[in-house]
Design goal:
This protein has 15 helices and 29 strands. The protein is of the alpha+beta class.
């Protein structure tokens, strides 16, 4: 997807009309914003996706921009909107406006529409979080925190979260009133200052971020699906000339840092334009905090809209032309937005769609194969023209898709995929079926690693500890920081997993499971309780375990105990 670019020309003010260069030189011809043409006196016309004349209302801007952003978020895609332009060009007015009046801006309108859309679908469950931050003098600050407001935050990156801000306050919001309250709170904390052009000039870049997590039923597979989308709504500080604004002291330093980050942003846009033409160019995202945060918005997993704001009068023509050229170059930048959902479930849905298409083509081929044309049909379909070899190839593809989906359709395929990800556990050279109970499974924030390894508890005294110990081997060998040679042992009342005794009936009898420390230096936590800190008359403290208890071995290895059966849907909802 190319970045969508819109231009808004603000109305001239009395100071501009009464001074030198007060004539109108920028206009949007026509009455429709979709025409996207901006005319500049003495220069060529510029063509954009959208263009708004200074007679347009806040609602006129919201309908073609804000509605599309909410639609992206609701459907599981990341979306970004950032406003760019010179200082006092109307960026903050377009993004925030005046709350509680018809002049309210894009961010509050998007937040309200999002909750209205969520409330309209009772079959879909959504959880919404909001965060608000500013980039002031190249430092990230949290606008929603009540303590350590001047603490500098860092932009981080990992495979699970992508580019994100570590330590940022994320407030859970359940209604449009709560999210508007968070917007107002953050706006009050934002850094502003008076200049010759604006009584409340933004001295920082502000980012309001909304995260939407949704659970719903897939209309094709009828399976439970989850998606997570992120909306980044960014009000950039305006580029400025110190001589025009009369900036001195702190304001002069602030202006320099604003211009520096916007200069790097311009270099990134120029480099991305070259990349879109197939050239190999290094994009300097890391040279500024702003561009590093905007990396996904400019070239990653997001559907991005740029709103360029400009003044219509001749006294600001240089800044206006710079803004329009800037926006014109951004049109050719491409992003790669994908739906943020479980990749395994998305693949299964894709296979189901292919399967239905293959069935349809085969049915058409069979209907047209024996009758010589199908009676009153005016044309012969492609399916009727298929040769026997093509039909055979279709049948083979159909069989392959059916095999991938599994005999039981989606449910069985999901279970098979989950089981295939599990690592086989070997005890003393003997492989054990990982579906035996009781067992331990690993837990992880990464959904692909979660429950990826199953450890059947074998025998009445199943020990976990380091490899290479003298004497009897541990039942499961675990090396790493904080793990002792003999770390802990699990005691079962009925001999542990049925694989240990060969008695399959043992699985029907609910065992009693205890965990004991094997070393005074061993750290074991059960549901957050530190066993090594418990008061006990015995030298080796022990605890009785319940089904689905969480056990931490050492400082960071988290496992879950299953006593007699796998996790039910009720268990999943509870945990």
């Amino acid at each position: 997807n190319n970045i969508k670019v819109a231009v808004r020309v603000r109305p001239p003010n009395q100071r501009e009309l009464g001074g030198d260069g007060g004539s109108i030189c920028v206009s949007v011809p026509g009455s429709k914003s979709e025409e996207g043409v901006v005319s500049v006196t003495g220069s060529k016309d510029f063509a954009f996706d959208l263009a708004f004349p200074f007679t347009c209302s806040q609602l006129d801007v919201f309908l073609p921009i804000g509605v599309n952003i909410v639609q992206c978020a609701y459907n599981g895609y990341n979306a970004s909107l950032f406003a760019y332009g010179q200082t006092s060009s109307g960026k903050s007015f377009s993004m925030m406006g005046v709350n509680g009046t018809p002049l309210v801006g894009l961010i509050p309108r998007i937040a309200r529409l999002l909750f209205n859309v969520i409330a309209s679908n009772t079959e879909r469950v959504s959880h919404v979080e909001a965060s608000y931050m500013e980039i002031y003098n190249e430092k990230l600050r949290d606008l929603l925190t009540t303590v350590n407001r001047d603490e500098e935050l860092k932009v981080r990156e990992n495979k699970q979260l992508g580019v994100h801000v570590s330590g940022l306050t994320r407030e859970s919001v359940s209604s449009e009133f709560e999210i508007i309250s968070e917007i107002d709170k953050g706006t009050r904390n934002r850094t502003t200052a008076a200049t010759l052009y604006n009584a409340e000039s933004s001295r920082s870049h502000a980012v309001f971020e909304i995260t939407v997590q949704s659970k719903y039923i897939d209309p094709i597979t009828k399976a439970d699906m989850q998606s997570t989308s992120r909306l980044a709504l960014i009000d950039l500080a305006g580029s400025e000339r110190s001589a025009k604004l009369g900036s001195t002291g702190v304001a002069f330093k602030e202006g320099n840092n604003i211009n520096k980050s916007l200069t790097v942003l311009g270099r990134c846009i120029r480099a991305l334009v070259e990349v879109s033409k197939g050239k190999k160019v290094a994009v300097p995202f890391r040279e500024s905090v702003l561009t590093w945060y905007l990396r996904d918005s400019l070239s990653g997993n997001a559907r991005t809209t740029m709103l360029a704001a400009c003044s219509p009068v001749a006294s600001n023509i240089e800044e206006t032309l710079s803004t329009l050229r800037y926006a014109d170059s951004a049109k050719s930048i491409k992003t790669a937005a994908v739906k943020n959902e479980d990749p395994a479930q998305a693949k299964i849905r894709e296979l189901n769609s292919e399967l239905e298409e293959l069935k349809r083509r085969l049915e058409e081929a069979e209907q047209g194969g024996g009758g010589g044309g199908g009676g009153g049909r005016s044309s012969v379909t492609d399916a009727q023209k298929m040769s026997n070899d093509e039909k055979e190839s279709l049948m083979e593809e159909l069989a392959r898709q059916m095999e991938m989906l599994g005999e039981g359709g989606f449910t069985s395929s999901k279970l098979n995929a989950s089981k295939s990800r599990r690592t086989s556990v070997v005890f003393n050279g003997t492989g054990v079926d990982t579906d035996q109970f009781p067992m331990l499974t690993c837990l992880s924030k990464d959904t692909m690693l979660n429950h990826a390894m199953a450890i059947p508890i074998i025998g009445n005294n199943f020990k976990i500890g380091r490899s290479g110990v003298s004497g009897e081997k541990n039942g499961f060998e675990l090396d790493g920081m904080g793990i002792q040679a003999r770390h802990c042992s699990f005691h079962s009342s009925n001999g542990g997993a049925a694989a240990a005794t060969g008695d399959k009936k043992n699985n029907s009898k609910k065992p009693t499971m205890k965990v004991s420390l094997c070393s005074a230096n061993a750290a074991v936590y059960v549901n957050g309780v530190a066993m090594h800190e418990m008061d006990s008359d015995d030298d080796t403290p022990s605890l009785t375990l319940q089904h689905l208890d969480r056990v931490v071995l050492g400082p960071c290895r988290l496992v879950c105990i299953y006593l007699t059966q796998p996790m039910t849907q009720e268990d999943k909802d509870f945990w």
